[in-house]
Design brief:
- 2 copies of one chain form a homodimer.
- Chain A is 76% helix and 7% strand.
- The first copy, chain A, is mainly alpha-helical.
- Chain A has a domain of 96 residues: Winged helix-like DNA-binding domain superfamily/Winged helix DNA-binding domain (Arc Repressor Mutant, subunit A, Orthogonal Bundle).
- In chain A, strands 1-2 form a two-stranded antiparallel ribbon.
- In chain A, helix 1 packs across helix 5, helix 2 packs across helix 5 and helix 3 packs across helix 4.
- The mean pLDDT of chain A is 90.
- At the A-B interface, helix 1, helix 5 and helix 6 of A face helix 1, helix 5 and helix 6 of B.
- The first copy, chain A, binds a DNA duplex (30 and 30 nucleotides) through helix 4.
Chain lengths: 151, 151
DNA sequence: TTGCATAAGTAAGCCCGCTTAATTATTTAG
DNA sequence: CTAAATAATTAAGCGGGCTTACTTATGCAA
């Protein structure tokens, strides 16, 4: 019980710390690209899974009208493509252009640099220990996610 | 070398996974409060360290004019106080009201619930293992942060 | 005292992101 | 074929958040 509390509180502490750093990279990369946080967020969403306009809006928590406008601005600036779905000509398939992918690569790379520095501060033994623990965390987080989808 | 790469990539993987979940809680809490992400972000910043308007703006990466306007909206809605600094009557000290603190508590609590569930999915041995690894991560991240401040 | 620097706020103007309501094109059910 | 449903867009309108330029009040130093 006390162990359980200690773990979730330490997780919390780590997340607070991590958030400050990761958010910084995220925001800086967003500024560099000249896009808003919402726009970069949409690009991330699109990179994970292609889909229609309404579907993307739903996952971003906005109406399809809002999604259409958001995506239109990204299209105007050459970050995404809108192609007619051959199986339903009402729908559009949204995909990233190379320019869109580069925005994400930049964001990912700046974070990866930070993580490399972090890893460099650890001894090989510590690295191994942290690696094993992260695998547990990743595994259990996925388990939690798939459980929630069931409901 | 290969271990190093494996660790930073696994860290990356964990962060991707975590971001999806944590961002969801963050956005949902933001919606519940009726505030924008920028407003909740400012409240978080204020809770960490009190300071003047310009100082807050600087940390948020915006001009002091923008900060003044952002904070004014929060003041109008009763989330913060603006008190004259007794040592420099030009400056205002920004602090959270109880209402402002509640917004943050709500955000923190919804995240804590998720972390509790995550911890519950682990055996006591795994919990101990993860706890030890997190302590290393927290320690090294702080080390990295303080090193960057030196430059 | 004069004058420059600093902290905050104000005004005008822009773009973003969101909503609701209406429109267009297409699919699907009867 | 006709009518309802669906996917996307468009239009109008609101507020947020940002900028620059300016104003006001205060601090500080020659």
């Amino acid at each position: 019980m006390t162990q359980h509390t200690a773990l979730s509180e330490t997780l919390h502490q780590w997340i607070d710390l991590f958030m400050r750093n990761s958010a910084k990279h995220w925001i800086q990369s967003s500024r560099r690209s000249g896009l808003s946080l919402a726009q970069v967020g949409a690009l991330f969403r699109i990179s994970k899974k292609c889909g229609g306009v309404s579907e993307i809006g739903e996952e971003l928590g906005v109406t399809s009208a809002a999604a259409s406008q958001l995506l239109d601005r990204l299209f105007q600036q050459g970050y995404i493509l809108r192609q007619e779905d051959p199986r339903d000509r009402r729908a559009k398939q949204i995909t990233l252009t190379e320019k869109g992918q580069q925005v994400l690569s930049d964001s990912v790379n700046s974070r990866q640099e930070w993580l490399d520095e972090l890893a460099n501060l650890m001894t090989p033994e510590e690295q191994e220990q942290v690696l094993a623990a992260l695998k547990i965390l990743i595994d259990r987080t996925r388990q939690l996610e798939s459980g929630q989808q069931m409901q």
